[in-house]
Amino acid sequence: MGKYIVKKLLIAVVTLFLVILILFLFMELMPGSPFNDPKLTDEQRMLLEKSYGLDQPVMVRFFIYLRNILKGDFGVSYHLSINTPVTVMIRSRLPLSMKIGFLAMLFGSAVGLCIGFLAAFHRGKAVDVISMIITVIGISVPSYIFAIALSYFVGFKWRWLPLLYDFRLPARSIVMPVLALSVFVMAVIARFTRDEAIAVLQSDYVLFAKCQGTSKATLLFRYVIRNSLMPVITVMALLLVGLLTGSLVTEQIFSIPGIGFLLSSAITSNDYNVVIALSFIYAAIFVTVRLLLDILYGIVDPRVRVSGNDPV
Amino acid sequence: MDQELAVQAVHRNPSIAFPEDGFKEEDFQFVKREEGLETDHTYSGESFFRAAVHRFFARKANIFGLVLLCLLVLMSIIGPHISGYSYDEQDLEREGLAPRIPGILSGAETLSGTRGDIEVNRYEELGLDDVYYFFGTDSLGRDLFSRCFQGLRVSLLIALAAGLIDLVIGMNYGMISGFFGGRTDMLMQQFVDVASSIPSLVIVTLLMLILEPGIGAIIIALMLTGWMEMSIVARAQVLKLKEQEFVLAARTLGAGQFFILFREILPNIVGTLITQIMVTIPNAIFLETFLSFVGLGLPIGSCSLGRLISDGFDNCLLHPYQLVPCMLLLILLMIACNLIADGLKEAFDPGNRNAV
Questions:
Q1: In this predicted model, what pLDDT tens digit does every residue of B232-274 receive, in sequence order?
Q2: A245, B201: Cβ pair inside 8 Å?
Q3: Does residue B156 share a domain with residue B72?
Q4: Average pLDDT over residues B220-227
Q5: CATH (domain of B230)
Q6: Is residue B317 part of a domain?
Q7: Residues of A (154-173) whose Cβ lies below 8 Å from B
Q8: Domain extent listing, chain A
Q9: Fewer CB in 10 Å around end: N or C, chain A?
Q10: Residue B193 and residue B231 in contact, taking contact as beta carbons nearer than 8 Å
Q11: Mean of the pLDDT values across residues A39-53?
């Protein structure tokens, strides 16, 4: 077990290092500079670059950068809010994005589990067909389309909730983004739960429990639901990616001051440090969740840690 | 009983059953029995593919998805030519016209403002009596009907590219890694392990910044990130098959490594690979619309579903009709692809409990 965890940890560290390297190289290759105002003279531009340390050789800058990242320093913003440390900008925005993502995950999983179990218990009946249609739509339709539809009808036509993020009404403002993001989570979880529950319901041990005369409630809660829940954890990594991409567009649609909106505005204004820092944070979240999942799986399923393969 | 005796006699003296001068035609007699003469449907020797096709067409949802996809492909070919307006022809006089279809939609639209709603028909204001824009026009007076189907064409092109990338890179990478095993496999898998840990969103975002925005950039982004899932699927399949007897037989007969891999194993895993392609395609289509929406995809002048949705979103509070058709097309395309993918998964792998 120890060897397995060390191996996975090592892979995670190597991955993060590579991410930093790739991010840095990408930024080197990027066209334009943060100081491409045509009114600047060459001397002024050189002075600016010197003051930000941009005149050093690439390798030197990379190692300085790496050292700073390890200290939690991502440099300062060049453009969006000049000379504010990126860490400060992110720290003020990250909690909101995390909150929305977490709530979307929670709400989507809860609804998805209910739909999935309902469909599995009424397999082939109307409930199953309806849930199937809901999941196909939920998986097919991108979350930002739900976001647009919600903002048009609920926010604009009926005026039930604020159309854009409102600092005075933070709780009401995040209802629509959470709903829009949770649809995909719900659909994927519902589908997975249904398949797993059907497989469990058809298994021999459930038949045996039935033959023993186990009451229906015990059967459902102790056998079916408990055993079908474990594999659902695997999909969480997939869903996290969906939430990361989804947050970018959803935050743009609802003007939410979170990291997704910050990233898209940093991209359009060539604010290197912000883009690198946010990409790193996205990657770090992703890698951490994968690591946790791998370790969790190693604990739950001994076959995984023996063979060292990823759970499929 | 006498049949058993005859068998024993043959065993003792094979020359009874196998005359030395061989069988002649008159040795045999055609037994024609009308009763009981029927095709055995229960145990008919159906080939794997035929069985898969049967299973696929046995479900209405799959047929619906297939028909929908065919219709969309057809419309992407002829759609831009139906209305008679080209997709990029601008006419600033005719900007913001609502949809008008003979006998169905009059071209009137309701504009919502802070002081209530007003109904306008810009066709009548402009004196355009015999002019029909089926989906209306956008803010530059371009025909949305042609634009939507032109955009659909771009999305399908990206879908095609994604499928090819899956086949060329993902399939070969996974198959070679799985088949040769050992150190090759370990190195190739470590690479995929690390590469797939980097969120593709990050790679794609940065790539779009470096490259000139356009279809080419999106396809390069797909080349970097889109094939990994396919390679994992292909590797798992090869690992499952390479220890089987038919591979051993081929090897005993002296078949080369690549012959075994591509002529013996590949035909047996083609079903799973096709399914995986259909899983990749909606992701690729989504990627384009997503990138265009964030402003990283196709440049503003061009025309794709993502671009149209992004443009339509800018005007959606005033003219929601500019957003509806392109969004519907995207939804229909995604639903069709997902339905087909689910159907294929079930058809090629009926025992798989994760199939729907």
A1: 888 888 888 888 888 888 888 888 888 888 888 888 888 888 8
A2: yes
A3: yes
A4: 84
A5: 1.10.3720.10
A6: yes
A7: 156-157
A8: 1-79+269-312, 99-263
A9: C
A10: no
A11: 76
What are B298-348's pLDDT values in tens digits?
Answer: 777 678 888 888 888 887 777 788 888 888 889 999 999 988 888 888 888
Whether the per-residue pLDDT at B6 is higher than 70: the answer is no
Contact status, residue B202 vs residue B264, Cβ threshold 8 Å: no
Single-letter code of the amino acid located at B272: T
Quote ipTM for the complex.
0.78
Check CB contact of B187 with chain A, cutoff 8 Å: no
Q: How many domains does chain B have?
A: 2
Band (pLDDT 50/70/90 cuts) for residue B355 is very low
B35 assigned to some structural domain: no
Topology given in CATH for the domain delimited by A99-263: MetI-like fold (1.10.3720)
Q: Based on the domain organization, do B283 and B321 belong to the same domain?
A: yes
Chain A, 231-260: which have a CB under 8 Å from a chain B CB? Answer: 241, 244-245, 248-249, 252-253
Residue B267: which domain range?
Answer: 48-86+145-352
Nearest Cα of chain A lies from the Cα of B210 at a distance, in angstroms, of: 5
Residues B82 and B106 both lie in one domain: no
Q: What value does the mean pLDDT take over residues B44-72?
A: 84
